[in-house]
Design goal:
Number of strands: 4
CATH class: Alpha Beta
Strand content: 5-15%
Strand order of the largest sheet: 2-1-3-4
Structural class: alpha/beta
CATH superfamily: SGNH hydrolase
Number of domains: 1
CATH architecture: 3-Layer(aba) Sandwich
Low-confidence stretches: none
Radius of gyration: 18 Å
């Protein structure tokens, strides 16, 4: 059995240490394999880990890595996919890069009218549908389970496609406040729980501050808590023999 992990800085294990940039390869590799909850889980299970998470990445970029790795993933492997905010996919293009979708260019990045005039939350809703559909297809083609969860943004709070609730193997999809932040500040499942598109602008309550870094990523302590939580969920809810 092997663990494969995909996602953004929450899965990569960013620690926000002053004077250090976590996205630099040497630091990112250290965090991936020594700090992240997937590394803690791998050590607990005494198994190999491949952590593909990249700080600040989009869902689409991690889908690329998943497709690349899918030829090597076995049916008994644990595959974890942290869903990041869908605003990192095409909505950024519609807001910041309108020159890429001008009327003098082909609609290669999607429906031009939607991208130029649409609500970014609508575009994001389509993009999260694409993301989950691709993951679902990989699961069926490869006969594997890909366990999904929200990193810091519960996309259902902003999503216009309600039948996304029908996708499988998504931890807490049918619950409010279902992000890793909610697990660490004890608001999981609460109607008024924490949900931010930009976690760096939020500060945790003093009681839970030890679980977070200065930019509200999971701390070393936080990653250990997440690993213990994942172990229980994988064993009891997803029937892994661990």
């Amino acid at each position: 059995m092997k663990i494969w992990a995909y996602g953004d800085s929450f899965v990569a294990g960013d620690q926000d240490i002053k004077g250090r940039v976590d996205a630099i390869p040497e630091y990112q590799d250290y965090n991936r394999y020594n700090v992240s909850f997937s590394s803690v889980l791998a050590k607990k299970l005494n198994c190999e880990l491949t952590n593909r998470a990249v700080s600040g990445c989009s869902n689409f970029s991690q889908i690329d890595k998943l497709i690349e790795d899918s030829e090597h993933i076995e049916s008994d492997d644990i595959v974890l996919f942290g869903i990041t905010s869908f605003y990192r996919d095409r909505p950024k293009i519609s807001v910041y890069f309108k020159d890429l979708i001008s009327k003098t260019q082909g609609p290669a990045l999607g429906d031009r009218e939607l991208l130029l005039n649409g609500d970014p939350s609508v575009i994001g809703s389509y993009d999260i549908f694409y993301t989950l559909s691709i993951i679902d297809s990989i699961e069926k083609i490869k006969n594997i389970k890909i366990i999904k969860f929200n990193a810091f943004h519960n996309f259902m709070d902003d999503c216009n496609i309600k039948h996304l609730m029908k996708f499988n193997n998504f931890i807490g999809l049918h619950q409010p406040s279902n992000t890793l932040i909610n697990l660490l500040d004890n608001t999981w499942g609460k109607i008024d729980g924490t949900n931010f598109v930009d976690h760096s602008k939020w500060s945790p309550p003093e009681k839970y501050r030890k679980n977070f870094t200065r930019y509200s990523h999971p701390s070393v302590i936080g990653h250990k808590k997440l690993a213990n939580w994942l172990y229980k969920v994988l064993k009891h809810d997803y029937n892994y023999s661990i």
